[in-house]
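Two proteins follow. First one:
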Amino acid sequence: MGLLQTPEYAAAVFRAAHPRETDAEIMARVELRMRRQSVLERENPPLLWVVVHEAVLRTAVGGPSVIVAQLEHLMAAMRSPHITVQVLPYKAGAAPSHLPFTLLSAGGPPQAVYTETPTHGGQVDHTATVVSAAVTMTDRLRMAAASEDESLTLIGEIAEEHTK
């Protein structure tokens, strides 16, 4: 989703997905992603709750220095009272969802689900059954994931492993 990515990490992700684009095209994508992060810097930012699979943290995107900086950035973001990050560890087994999605809420229960696909871009679905299914998947993901403290410790350990 990119809200917690560093510019270098985002550039590596975009470069992997769009290997034929010019550096200028990649940087335009990165700049747009970084501008979206300003929502987290508002006076009253939205609550952001992310469950990330351990495999994502162990993948050396952009090389050791890029992934270590990304993990350090993630740990710093976790200090915000508006950001919760949980790691779904390998030991949790099969994930309740293998596709990324975002629940959208305007202060009450979720009213919509945002999804992206590589070929169709982003889509918002307000259908009650879709939102309900996504809420159930989110609940199951959060239950299977490590606690915030355990997640912070695991991210730190993985960052250290990337430096070896």
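Second one, unrelated to the first:
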Amino acid sequence: MSPLLPPPGAPRLGLGLAALGRPGYINLGHGQDVGADKDVEALRARAWEVLDAAWSAGLRYFDAARSYGRAEEFLGGWLKARGHEATVGSKWGYTYTADWRTDAETHEVKDHRLATLERQWPETLAALGRRPEIYLIHSATLETGVLKDERVLARLAELAAGGVRVGLSTSGPKQADTLSKALAARVDGVNPFSVVQATWNLLEPSAGEALAEAHAAGWGVVVKEAVANGRLTSRAEVPPALAHLCAEQDITPDAVALAAALAQPWADMVLSGATTVEQLQSNLASLRLTLNLEALGNLAQPPERYWGERAGLAWT
């Protein structure tokens, strides 16, 4: 069985730790959610609280990255302490540089060279205390040249041959182009990649066709940012059609947004990015929704506008 697929009875909803492993993130209201106490132990306790709630709700897929502060450490410690078996995904290619500050000038630095991969893979093993089932290039783009770097591809092929499912996450208005390039990658005639994690949501669905192609090719597909970093939650002024549906059915925008992603036939797993147990509970309502997506109409923004607005979100 693919490690992306949940065990019988488990939902296709997973938990991403981007907002749980560090004191600053770009989700709307993140600083308010974390609260005044932002030291390491306070955030560890918060992460474990949300992880416990996710586990109790049946979630069995957890996603981290080297750049998510101490997310891998928090997740690995929680899994060991609780004795849980779960599917874990992580990512390499960004280095966390904020030094646990929310006002840092730079929070993370991207570098897709082989040296970064060779440094971060053992760091991930140490932090998690185990090998992740899924290991992704973090925010691969055509501009970094990582998908043409033969040494990086060869090293990832070695990991794949050892049983790790390797792949890439995508970001930016050219997600589909990046994924098409990855689908064509070869090392000794074999594509080392078999997983993609991409942004797809009601505001930015442009990667949908490429994700369907990846799914048809046998790749695992994970959806991130389904609530658009809070822009599809009650913290934002949501599109009128979405607001009307929520009022009519007494549901929250985040649940609708996640349900829309879960409704995509190519989506193997959809990530919640909850920072609090209350947010997670609201997200979980998506599993009980049956949506008429046509009633929402087309909420999509031009990709360049969407990603431009995302780039302007404040770290709090």
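SUMMARY FIELD: The chain has a mean pLDDT of 97. The domain at 13-302 is CATH 3.20.20.100 (TIM Barrel).
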